[in-house]
Prior knowledge:
Elements lengths: L14 E3 L5 E5 L2 E7 L9 E7 L4 E6 L4 E8 L1 E6 L2 E6 L3 E4 L5 E5 L4 E8 L5 H6 L1 E2 L15 H10 L3 E2 L10 E2 L12 E3 L5 E5 L2 E7 L1 H4 L3 E8 L7 E3 L4 E8 L2 E5 L2 E5 L4 E4 L5 E5 L4 E8 L4 H7 L1 E2 L14 H6 L7 E4 L7
Parallel strand pairs: 8-14
Antiparallel strand pairs: 1-23, 2-3, 2-12, 3-4, 4-11, 5-10, 5-13, 6-9, 6-11, 7-8, 7-10, 9-15, 16-17, 16-26, 17-18, 18-25, 19-27, 20-23, 20-25, 21-22, 21-24
Amino acid sequence: xTVISTRLPQEMRPYLLRSGDGERYVFGRQVASVMASSQxxxxxxxxxxxxxxxxxxxxxxxHAGSYESVIVLEGKLEFLLNGTYHLLTAGDYVxxxxxxxxxxxxxxxxxxxxxxxxxxxxxRVYSILGIPYAPVEHPVKPVGAITGELLEQASxxxxxEFLAGPMQWGSSAMIExxxxxxxxxxxxxxSGEGDRLLTADxxxxxxxxxxxxxxxxxxxxSIGPKGDPIVEHxxxxxxxxxxxxxxxxxxxxxxxxxxxxxxxxxxxxxxxLHSYRLDADYTQVVGLLVSGLFEPFFRTLGDPYEDHIFPSxxxxxxxxxxxxxxxxxxxxxxxxxxxxxx
Length: 342
């Protein structure tokens, strides 16, 4: 049994970070909390929570070889994506393939977003542009400044290229709807959109599929009511993450029982035995799965669903369909429930 670390480790292993944990850096009135680094995930991905004050910006840039998935957690965010300005609120999603110019400006007095990058080669930027910071919340007055020299150092150390160009903040339009394209392309999705699939009483929305990441990963948002644990299982070939954004849930990982609340993050690399249970009337968890090979599981187990909230009466849980193709899935079921082991 592997003990779950509660600090950001320097090697790939299962670990838990509570809301506000991680390696924190401040620049201006923004705080970057590194929740997953290249070291902690074996170079598979990185994840950073950025929070700050109204008016704070991150300059125009692009990544040569990295995908980025951004989900807004709180506040309002103006986002420039490939020449188009969007106004985002909590739950909205941005998909950024390699080579796509993008920038943001925080438009709410307390704005927070989570940025996932695949592969993990970008988070070093924050330790260069910022300075180590003990408080969790952003400062009242700006701390430090992003200079041209720092931008050059960051570009030399990570997969990021800063671009020139005037910003036209204030012209952003609120996003409505959105659909996943059938190819690798930049796009935005309003909260609740995506390819929606119902499994019993849980609604899974695929926000990025293999076709959007060249098979590299999928990004999934799941909501549901209080329920029972899912089967206890592990994966031989892919990493899974759990980031609770609303409600509360119980995770079982490597034999430990862990309660997750909003802002808590659990990293489950390949080979880690795990399960979960939703414990609030409305719980939301978002997850990055690298690579994207597990997508057929969701599409086989779940049925396409038109609505945006889970039903009051659960639909069927079609494990029979999963069992019919389980030899094709990276899924090793160990027990019907982790509670059976107690």
